[in-house]
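mind reviewing this stuff:

——
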Amino acid sequence: MAGAKGIVPLVIGAIPFGIIFGTLAQSSDLSFAATISMSALVFAGSAQFICLGLWATGTPLLIIILTTFVVNFRHLLYSLSLVTHVRNLSPIWQVLLGFCLTDEVFAVVINRYSERDSSKYKHRYH
């Protein structure tokens, strides 16, 4: 519950971006299924907007994928700074935490991982 409370202010701030993305996706002729899939699978808002802009101009799919990869490369840096905190977790936990890693989540959890207490369960805050 503490992790959920910690992220609420950032989630509230992200809601308008979701509304804007949905509106732009509709006007860019992105299908409803593709819009929902992007929202469910691509957590980086900047990547969604860049992808949508490239899609609307008819950019080839390979270029869209490569551009999205470059834009999201910062997540590799986030992950590297979290490795010491999740190294001993099971692969399932590592994949789950990695999948859910966003800019906002990183900002909240890095503070929790940095606290000097003896909890073995800080990853559950994440």
Remarks:
- The chain has two domains: 2-71, 74-125.
- The two ends are 11 Å apart (CA to CA).
- The chain has eight helices and no strands.
